[in-house]
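Continuing the batch. This is chain 6 of the set; chains 1 through 5 are on the previous pages. Same settings as before, nothing changed between runs. Recording input and output for traceability.
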Amino acid sequence: MNQRDDFANLEYSVEEMRQMGDEVLARAIEHIATLASQPACGDLVGDDYCRTLREPAPEDGTALDPLLDRLFDDWIPKSFTTAGSGYLAYIPGGGVYPAALADFIQNTTNRFTGIWRCAPALVQLEANALDWIRDWMTFPATTRGLFTVGGSMATFNAILCARERHLGADIRPGVVYASAQAHHSVAKSAKLAGIMQDRVRQIDVDDQFRMRIDALEAAINADRRAGLKPFLVVSSAGTTNTGAVDPFDTIADLCTDGQLWHHADGAYGGFFYMCPELRPLMRGMDRADSLTLDPHKGLFLPYGTGALLVRDGAVLHDAHAATGEYMPAMPDDCYDPSQHGPDLSRGFPGLRVWLTVKLYGAAKLRAAVAEKRALAVAAAEAIEQLPGVVMDAPPQLSLFGFHIEWPGSTVEEQNVATTELMNRVTARGRVMLTGCTTGGRFLARVCVLSFRTRQADIDTCVEHVAEEAAKVLAAQGAGATN
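Output for chain 6:
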């Protein structure tokens, strides 16, 4: 081999690969082992710091160690500690260790699973994982599914199925309905599917932030009178703002009677349904025509793991079926990812789910899911008893929202004080909270969904909220009562 050929060689030796793997593994394990001592919210940086990181592609390679130093010592700490037990912000996703092993396996073996024929056994493992989720959600055997990078892409594919089933080529008259608390990805996904914003209706919610059925019926009837074509209702199994669960059974009845597609957004809360004792909280979710799920939330996997179930799998297949002269023929009774989703080139996303379930077992995962709701209910009960705290959104699943107030305070003053409370709790470094604004009121939120969050973390959360709320209220010069 001449010098030029040697320079073009991108292969590492066995010893080099082993050494590099050992270095990365040591850093990763140290990171996990020290999560408890890391701040729940890292030292976030601004635009100026990020501008200093801009650089052209290096002409020559760099050693691994210095890069790991910068990643683990400088850059990763400058972010939310989403893997930590005190991360009670947004919707947590802890990232179980088996999924990391699965990613390493899929990236090193680099198998192509877009087409069944290229890796039949591996695609069958992915199909098995989708069937497990189907069974946990008590969907019928006709169901087909798809792993996606997240809930947004799952929702997009669901809207595409609904559009193909109910609108065909004439999509402009089609109208989508979702609650005013629905995730913003619903409107974005509708737009990607060709349903413009003026055809997406936001339906008012009740005092528990659930979609109002009377308002939904009125909107559908008004659009029909205007010559439009209602075709899709999106319900929520736990909204991002307040964790609200829409009345699935009633929505399913309405959609059946009106011949509309019913899509359930279970990205946050859907996996609570895998626990039989919690299914009454989402009664009727299994009647939906399609269901978005995020294993990177309720199944504790790393971010980038979404899923879609479609009750009539033929609709999902028909929406995506395509072929070419270079494409091999597929057995009719085998699952082919390229014929059920938009991607042809893809890795092996289902391995994350398959390996995690195989190593833990479904019973252990169900126990962990159920524990998160129990912890959230206990936290809400304790926080609601604190002086000055008003519980606006009790935990329907594992998320709740509240604000603080005192005699004579205005909503604006309460919003400022609640924001200060949230920031003060987060600044203490043990737990991280985030908030939302709904109906003009700012709420502090607690969401329990990380597999690492246990009773001690909930005790810390309650303690810090109690202490900081007392300080915020004392600064107002008022002895607040509930």
